[in-house]
Each structure stands twice: as C-alpha cells, then as structure tokens.
Design a protein that fits this description.
alpha+beta, 2 domains, 5 helices, 15 strands
Length: 291
Amino acid sequence: MVLSHRRIFILPSKAGLCCGLLLGIMLSASVIYNNNLSFILTFLLGSVCLVSVLHNFRSMTGLSINVGKSTMVFAGDLAEVTLLVTNPSKLPRINLRISAQHADTTQISVAPRVTASAVMKIKTHKRGWQTLGTVTIASYFPIGLFRAWSPINFAQQILVYPKPAAHSVALPKTFLATQHAVIRNPDGDDFFGLQRYQNGDSLRQIHWQAFAKGRGVHTKQYGGDRSPEIWLDLDQTPGDTLEFRISLLCRWIIDTEQSGAQYGLRLPHLSIRPDRGASHHSKCLRALALL
C-alpha cells in the first residue's frame, strides 16, 4: 500500500486547536488596540502554523507499507506482526506512529531510501483465524499542531492455536493404540508416554518436569522394540464442553511432542496419522485451531 494524497487525512491536534484559539485572541487584541507589532507577531505565528501543514503532509506521502511475517500463538498470547515501511524519498520520516485495534502503538523513524520494520503485538482472544484489521499510520511532525493519518485495511490473517489446558490429565487407555505390551523399564528402547503414578513405581521413572509444573505425579512408560502409537481422539476426550476438550487435546499434543513419542489425531471428518516432529506438531495444532 502506497500512501498518496487521497489516502492521507489532516486535522488539527489538541495542541493545534489551542494554538488556533490563542491566535484568535491575539488577533482580536491587535484589532482592538491597533498595535502593529501585535499584528506582525500574530501573522508570523499563523504563517508558521500553515507551513507546518505542508511539512506534516510531506512526512506521510509516498510511504510504502507492506505486511511481513506473523507468528502463530496460542489464544490469550500476543501475536507479533511485522510491518515494513519503505521511504523512497530523500527526506527522513520522523516519529511515525503505527496502531491497530487490538495492539499498542508503535513508533518508528525511517531514514531516506530505507525500509524499516515495526513489530506490532496483537492481542488474541480465541482460536482460529484473526484478521489484522485496520492499521493506522499517523504523524505529528514537525511541531505537533496537526495530525496526519492514513487508515489501511490489510487482509492479513493470524492463525491462533487453542489455549492449552493449565493442568494435564492422564491419557485414557483407549488412546494407547498398540499391539505391544507396555514394559515399565527405564532402560527400554522407546518412550511410550506418561501414566499417573502408582504404588511400587520406580522413582527413576517419575516425570519430574511435569511435577515441577504442577501437573501431578506421572511416570514415564517405555515400550519394546517398536514405539507404540498414541491416538488422540476428540470423541474420547473427557470434558463437558467442546472448547475444554480441545484445550485438553492441545495440552496432550504439546506434552506428547516433548516426550518424543509418535502420536496421531482423530477429529470429526479428519484423521492425522501418527508421527512426530515440528511439522507434524504444527499440523495437529492447526487442525485443532480450525475445528
């Protein structure tokens, strides 16, 4: 998006309105007392204000705005969206303010013939696609009496993952879809998953990281020669509401991926085969976000 004269709006700021009121009072006093020096001062200050309108417009015109990369986050976190501002002219653009509906104001300055990046932190509230919305670029250059701004509607969308459950629940036995028996052997070949602690379990098998995060006491389970498959099924996930079950599935996906086990995901009209890795992890979270 290139800012032209048809996209830039200019109005006096609060300081500009106060300055205009002051100039009106000075002009009235000059007329009443017929003071030439007062006339000169009033018109001089008024001309400075008029010239500042031109400089305010020049600080915005010709700028090119592009949307860069955006991060995928969980619901409730701040998503970072990068805006690229290109200044093709020989004039520096000073103190540009970039704001959006669900983001704090970001201030940048762009040197002549340079592309600068501004990172906007967008607030997220629910899973799924979230539009970037209207981004407003404004300038109070040079003396803050006038505000030039340009609202831009980008079609950029941010993918928001479901918010993971705060506390994990032990995996149901129906999720452990394997034909091999579970061997409680810490020296086993492949990691199988987590199971709630039972009397007689070895202390070496306790998953201390989960315990430190307040998720309860769980033990690590190991399989035989081949790693068993873990199927995460939405229909068999406990919970009263759909969003709670999705949140719990999101927590299990994160924990299972960190454990190194292979896992699959079953959703209505969608089945993702068991695998592991960053690509598989993102694919499962994306499916949950768009459910």
